[in-house]
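Could you help me review a protein record that somebody else here produced? What it holds is a sequence and that sequence's fold in token form. I have pasted the whole thing underneath without changing anything:
=====
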Amino acid sequence: MTPRVLESPAKINLGLQVHHRRAADGYHFLTSIFVPISFHDTLTITPGPASGTDRFTSTNHLIGDQFDQFEAVSERGDPSRNLIWRALEFTRPLRQAGLHVHLEKRIPAGGGLGGGSSNAGVLLRYIGQTVGVPTQTLQTLAVRLGADVPFFLTGRPALVYGIGELQEDISIGPGYGVLCIPPQSIITAVAYSHMKRTLQGAPPPKSLSGLTAGVRAALTHSEWKQIGAIRNDFEGPVFEMFPFLGELKSAFYECGADYASLSGSGSTMYALVKDEEKQKLFLEQVQRRFSELPFRTFRF
């Protein structure tokens, strides 16, 4: 059978507001803008014979502790903890043919970039298209896999709310940026534990502080200097845990960033600039100042 090669994109957060916790289970409600970016993993999906078994293999392109973290959930460790393998298990009753999924892993865990959720969402989307799974069924499976997974079923910029599983389209102009993915990983649950939010039974807010009509217009027209009112609530606790990330954000602005932020609960920091020329100049400056840190460019 002919393999399909699919990009599995990372995402960045433009603003992230953490609201109260829902009384039923203690999960935090949040509001954020998710934007898929060009930095990506790659999935190669090959259908097998009817009634065949599923296979999951991977190539680990990460380094240091991040390499070890992925090994622990790869087929060389415990693949039952990997969202790709869980997505295969969840969809097995819907398929006749087995699938071989090979993952080229570049997006580290604990970076706030949604790599595992992206892998699962892209795989679910493929299965939905090839087998004809109803959209609502895919959505239900995606939520079972993780709150961020539904976003990657479409992979379009979205205003995300609820615990991350609800979304509506939002207009975002083209963007150029630079990522810094430090070797430190941040466990999302630990970051949330620093948020002192009350338990309430109220419905999830859709509002994102600072997302005015003017900011929405700036997002549409890629005017990143005008969106500074939208902020990431995780920056406070994460910068306390890792002060150098706060210093890095300040340095990003000193080097000419139009907008800079932590992505998700971290540890990735990113900067947005006006165009490709400024992206190149910005990258050169931050690499000179922080030669020990890894940087990479991206666009959307």
The chain has a mean pLDDT of 94. The first helix runs from residue 64 to 73. The chain has ten helices and eleven strands.
